[in-house]
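Hello,

Our lab assistant flagged a job as stuck in the queue for most of the afternoon. It eventually completed. Since we weren't sure the result was trustworthy after the delay, we are filing this so someone can double-check. Below is the sequence as submitted and the structure that was eventually returned. Let us know if re-running is recommended.
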Amino acid sequence: MRKTLGRVDDCDRTDLHAFSDAAFVTRRKTGLKRIHGTMLVVGGVMDVLEIALLAIWIMIGNWVPFVIGLVPIVLLGVGISVYYFRSVAYLCPNCHTVFRPKFSRMFWSAHTPYSRKLVCPNCRYDGWCLEVPAAHTGTDMETGEPMIIV
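-- returned structure --
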């Protein structure tokens, strides 16, 4: 790696981890696209149902079908949130640990489409962690090994 980098004199272990992290995330982008695509489709179905129910309420003047119809919409929202939580893990840029936080921490933390502001359970790094598909991390989703579950 040092030979390839050429002019870089002090290529330390952290730099090598940064390269491996970038390769790790690049290889997993397909999995993330599938997860995000599924979420968009389910969200679209939820939107169509909600707009249709609202139109029915406006047209017939009865709000009962709207309220009854909100039950499956809320259930879809909960389901897609649980699906997302189970489908992704996070890679600490500091110590390179792959972990999954508690649902409430993940749900309420600041995020971008490919990262989330979390605290690493291994090194206590508090910052932006890279999102990776949990199914592709080589961990057992039932036991969480070697993934750290906080």
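-- support follow-up --
The delay was a queue issue, not a problem with the job. The result is valid. The chain has one domain: 9-149. Residues 121 and 150 are 6 Å apart (CA to CA).
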